[in-house]
Write a structure and sequence with these properties.
Residues 20-95 form the DUF7344 domain. This protein is mostly helical and 119 residues long. 61% of the residues lie in helices and 8% in strands. The protein has a single domain, classed as Arc Repressor Mutant, subunit A. The protein has 5 helices and 3 strands, in the order ααβααββα. α1 runs antiparallel to α4 and α3 (44-54) packs across α4.
């Protein structure tokens, strides 16, 4: 967001990246999974299973699962990591989840929406 002088405010970058990350249903679903899981580390393969099970069309074929895995690796997990919602270790294929940080970021998004509705 810009201030009166046209400069970016320091607070807008994290909230903007959160909105961008949460703009896609699969990424919102991944955040839901992350906030509800009891573990602090999740493998990319576990997330592939999670996404495949919830896909609108069955993801049974190996080619479909590879597509899900590629999209997670190259698109969805990096966007969530860039927004600070998760930490993604690309080399190991592991997602590190800090539920407190995730909950705080999601609460900031909710509060921002609530502020917009109060106008």
């Amino acid at each position: 967001m810009t201030d009166q002088d046209g400069a970016e405010s320091e607070d807008s970058a994290p909230i903007d990246s959160s909105f961008i990350a949460l703009s896609e249903p699969s990424r919102r679903s991944l955040c839901r999974y992350a906030i509800r899981t009891e573990t602090e580390r999740v493998s990319r393969e576990e997330l592939v299973d999670y996404v495949a099970e919830r896909a609108p069309e069955p993801v049974a074929a190996d080619a479909d699962r590879r597509t899900v895995a590629l999209e997670l690796h190259h698109v969805h997990l990096p966007k969530l990591a860039n927004a600070g919602l998760i930490e993604y270790d690309r080399q190991r294929g592991v997602v590190h989840i800090d539920r407190a940080t995730l909950a705080e970021r999601l609460e900031r998004v909710r509060a921002t929406i609530a502020d917009l509705q109060d106008v």
